[in-house]
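Teaching note: in complex prediction, the entire set of molecules is handled at once rather than each chain in isolation. The prompt given to students was simply: 'Predict the structure of this complex.' The entities are:
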Amino acid sequence: MTTPPVFDARGLVKRYILGETTVEALRGVDLEVSAGEVLVVAGPSGSGKSTLLHLLGTLDEPDAGSLTLAGTATATMNERARTLFRRSRLGFVFQTFNLLPVLSAEENVELPLWLAGVGARERRERARAVLAEVGLEHRFGHRPDQLSGGERQRVAIARAIVHRPLAVLADEPTGNLDSETATEVMDLLMALNRSRETVVVVSTHDPALIARAPRRVVLRDGRIAADTRGAAA
Amino acid sequence: MSRLLLAIVASGTVTLSGLAGAQVHPADRALLAQTNLFSTVPEQFHARLTVNRTDWLRPLQAEMWRGGRDRMLARVLDPRQAGRFLLQMGAEHYLIAPGARQPVKLGAGVGAAGAVSFEQLLGLDVERDFDIERAEGSGRIVTFHLVARPDTAAARATPRARWVVDRTRRLPLRVDIVLADGRTARVVEFADFLPGRDRVPSRLVLKDVLRGGPPAIVEIVAFEATPVPDGLFSLTDPAGRAQLPPAEKPR
Amino acid sequence: MKLALLALRNLARNRRRTAISLAVVATGTAALLLTAGFVAFSFEGLSEAMIHGGLGHLEIARQSATEGRTATLERSVADGLDDWQALQQQVEALPGVLAAAPTLHVAGMASTAAGRSAAFLGVAGDPVRERRMGFTVKVRQGVEMADAPPREGEDQVLLTQGLAQTLGVGPGDRMTLLAVDPDGMLNALDVTVAGLITTGVQELDTRYLRLHLHSAQRLLGTASASNLLVTLDRTSRTDEALHRLRGVLAGHQPPLAVVPWTERAPFYRQVRALYRGIFWFLGSIVFALVVLATSNTLAMAVMERVRELGTLRALGTSIGQVAGLVGLEALWLGLIGGVLGDLLGAALIVALNWLNISMAPPPGAVDPIELRVLFVPEAFVGTILLMLAVLALAAVGPVLRVARLRIVEALAHT
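The expected output is the structure of the full assembly:
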């Protein structure tokens, strides 16, 4: 028996109503992502990158088309099922890091484990291990406002992987970082993908990052314009 | 329920112009005079009487003396009431009590509502204190509508009255005490008269129309026309009354 | 890490705003505590005034005399206690009883030699026992009644000032009391005015007089008393003593009633109802003010954190958990504000009592009163519970807003 793809999207359509006009953010996207893949979704602003990631992350629902997540059709999931799916199977990294400012780095990383009902001691051990993995063993007790941008994004990445999700969805994770740090973050995501076999889907319009990705999906006007694998030319 | 029906009712003063009975037939005037118990009953007498009401545990025994047209002294025959008298001088009522050095003047309402007073026994001095407003009834029963003469004590206590008489027997049947506003306050019925002394009532029925309650029945159990010493009525010297025998209950 | 702890940490983020909210809650709490303390003081003052002004804690009277009557001066002597002396001995032997004093109620007319008269309501008692019971008579002029039973012709009265004014008499003057005895017969008694008093109640001060039990018995030609008034060492023992007395006196012939003072003081009940009304009115105003002030703060706190709340939802936090977080923040505000309010209230109560402020006489009373605010333990707990309820109500809007949050929009929120 073959393992179903982690993401299997067929003809995804998403429309937004802005005032009196309707904008079609996605106009029929087909995409299949298998376990262990790293995928960069590229394209100019407004091409539908974020929308695609939101749909893949069950943060929003498509207006047409179907999406199957690890063999389960999202159309059959209610609000609670989607919440539980995100909680246990997905990790998120945002452009603005979105850490809870009142919690320390360690506590931010513990959050998904706490939601999963993991006991305090195990939470702490696992959070510290992951933080060490991302190179922040000296920053456990620091609050987000005491960390640099790159450190914050590492904390966010640690938070995204601490509960061993199937996939990490990173929406412009380097958008707020300088190019050197951005490269570090991207390397980190790829390293995690290798060590954990976690699917990583990154949306970006940074050419340097796109060039390093093993698979590149280019969106243009809500449609996939190119889907290429292997090192870029 | 107080036997004396303690009523502190302010009697409104009425000033009615003299209604000289020019329109009243002389025969009616004569009939009124003939039925005026104040005139027909001896001016000096001693009587014993009982007063009873259906809601009382036992009847009240009393004795009274009349010493003049409108002077009366009464006391309740009960050792616990020893030394207490009710004294009536015209329209004025006084309580004489051992605890009070001076006779205590009672308000008109209190005095007139007392179980033992002239009003309860003889009605009103209809000749002296009242003018006839009109007379009704051509048959045996005649009703005199009376108005108290202005500026008299009677006018304050009883501004108006209806005096109902039996023309044939020349006897009063009933008196209605009417307030200034026209409401009937009390009714005294002359139910019976002493045999042989047909002008002395022996049984009276007193009804308090305003306050309701069962009527009081007054019965004269002994009557003696006899001279009464003046000293009994003194407001200043209790010596005359002190000589009376103790107020024992009759057997 | 608990949701409650996270909520508490969130409160610390905008310290100024949280401080203002806490100040609102604490001020409201303190205001309620002061009101409750003042109301309690008024109740206690009024109840002690009524108990020691002549009601006693308990009244023993014939059952037939109490039926359908609540007022103080309505016990007919015809329905009085013939064996009050034996009852007195029996009752005074009970624990907690300071004394049992006979009183005799007499109503009638008072008149003077000058021809002035006025209706009166008289209460006669035993001055020695009443002193032992802590009954206070405020003599404004003249002297108190002699303790010893007066001899015939030496009867005395204490007149209320209004009644004395109507009759045109003062201390040393003589007057005559007229009353109806148990047989329904009028009697009269000459008395000397010993002094002028006030009952503390304006209405009563135009009609009330006091006299020695023996004088009233002489006037009414009786040896009975209308009732026995029982005073206890502590007002809080009233219920206990009531039940014990009812037990002791059960089977007495004729049947006796034991009536607690509260049932005989409609005025007290009315004042209590009035003050309660005022308290609840003030309470609702405070409630409304705190709800309005804090709901706005909570709504702002939610608005500022929309993206954060969206992130929590994205990470798999349920709607209930996110809404609970906001609700818990509100409850923390209520709890901390309530506790601070309790402390503030306690400090203000101590300060106000220390200042010894004198107040104008309350409605119907004659003398000014000294302001005191009592500590009401129930109010200290109650206000905190109330503030929790207030903040829960204030959080309804923000919580609903959070529950309706769309994740994608929340994440895009700036």
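Point out the following to students. The interface with chain B takes residues 108-109, 111, 113, 115, 117, 119, 152, 155, 176, 178, 180-181, 183-190, 218-219, 221 of chain C (CB under 8 Å). Residues 15-55 of chain C form the longest helix (41 residues).
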